[in-house]
TrEMBL record:
Domain of life, source organism: Bacteria
Pfam families: DUF6933 (PF22016), PRiA4_ORF3 (PF07929)
InterPro entries recorded: DUF6933, MM3350-like_sf, Plasmid_pRiA4b_Orf3-like
UniProt protein name: Plasmid pRiA4b ORF-3 family protein
Domain Plasmid pRiA4b Orf3-like positions: 176-355
The DUF6933 domain, residue ranges: 2-158
Length: 357
């Protein structure tokens, strides 16, 4: 595996660069050393498909074992993509030993710098407790990039195709859950049935739910996970209240300021936590979105799929439209519907225009 380094990275490694070899570009990466949140970060960009791998928070001792860290970062990120273990190991074995060289040319460096800019835009989402930033790597690899005039690619899709050619077989397999998500409303039925990979993080799951209900991610959110025990002490306005009386075991929050408000339910910051940490052991969740309007989505795990052959969620079926953002909760939604159903209402035109935003 050829790692073509910037001068700054070579200085950090304190190694003499090897001469360029005629390597398969699938096993060649350009690498840069940058600083994010005042921490040393290495961004690797694949020569063939521009797939991105990120290592974060590196210390001086880590540069002495960078070969191993790079290989592990590739394993971690590919695994997060639901790529089969045997496909990952085939790639690692075919790539061979890690060799460091100088950057190839100005065009390759320019492409690498663009990927570094994308990674930089996610610095607030980096996990401080791990060198391997598989979530950020995955996100940075999903940006469209132009390879020539009027032709664009998505690095992640290109890498998936390259790995399929390399292995000669389908590359995806993971455990997934079939779930039903119901938006709690008294007068309207709004629900979706989804299949979601369990190695997805709760942050990614939030994004899936936003898409499934056509929300626009304008507000804070949180998750509650429930066990099989009942909690009969909670009032209906308690944050952890479940309509069927189940007891919450943990509250996953999306904003660190939430920890400023004590709770009788254990709180965790959701970043980096995967669905598999709680599912299938627990099969009831509550997703809250927009604490002002107070939208509550009850989630029930209906089935576990052991050999899901995709690396992304799918929506199987559903019913009803979710209310628009900032409509004022269920009462405001009902008022909104009444106005837009009456063309003679003095607020009709304004409300129609507002609803189409």
């Amino acid at each position: 595996m050829l790692i073509q380094c910037t001068k700054r990275l070579l200085n950090g490694l304190n190694v003499k660069p090897s001469l360029h070899k005629d390597e398969d570009p699938l096993f060649c990466w350009h690498a840069n050393l940058i600083s994010l949140n005042r921490r040393k970060t290495i961004v690797l960009v694949n020569d063939k498909n521009r797939y991105v791998i990120v290592l974060y928070g590196l210390k001086a001792k880590d540069f002495k074992k960078l070969d191993k860290l790079i290989l592990n970062a590739i394993r971690e990120t590919f695994s997060h993509e639901c790529i089969k273990d045997e496909v990952i190991e085939e790639y690692i074995n075919r790539a061979g030993e890690v060799i460091y060289a100088k950057t190839k040319d100005k065009s390759s460096v320019a492409r690498m710098n663009k990927s570094c800019d994308i990674v930089n835009s996610y610095q607030d989402s980096l996990m401080n407790d791990s060198i391997y930033q598989s979530d950020i790597s995955k996100r940075a690899s999903r940006y469209w990039v132009r390879i020539r005039e009027c032709r664009y690619i998505t690095p992640s899709e290109e890498m998936h195709r390259d790995l399929e050619v390399l292995s000669g077989k389908p590359i995806f397999c993971c455990k997934a859950a079939k779930i039903k998500v119901t938006l709690e409303m008294k007068k309207y039925k709004v629900w979706r049935k989804l299949i979601v990979p369990l190695n997805m993080t709760f942050t990614e799951f939030h994004e899936v739910l936003q898409a499934a209900f056509a929300w626009k991610d304008c507000h804070l959110h949180e998750f509650f996970i429930y066990g099989n025990d009942y909690e009969n002490k909670l009032f209906i306005n308690h944050p952890a209240y479940h309509k069927e009386g189940y007891k919450a075991i943990v509250n996953l929050v999306s904003d660190e300021e939430a920890f400023d408000y004590p709770s009788d339910v254990e709180m965790k910051f959701e970043r980096g936590i995967k669905l598999s940490q709680y599912i299938p052991q627990y099969k009831r969740l509550l997703y809250k979105y927009d604490f002002g309007d107070g939208w509550q989505h009850y989630i029930e795990v209906e089935k576990i799929i052991d050999d899901y052959d995709l690396n992304y969620p799918v929506c199987l079926e559903g019913e009803g439209n979710a209310p628009p953002e900032d409509v004022g909760g269920e009462f405001g939604y009902e008022e909104f519907l009444n106005i837009i159903s009456d063309k003679n209402d003095p607020e009709y035109e304004d409300m129609m225009a507002w609803g189409k935003r």
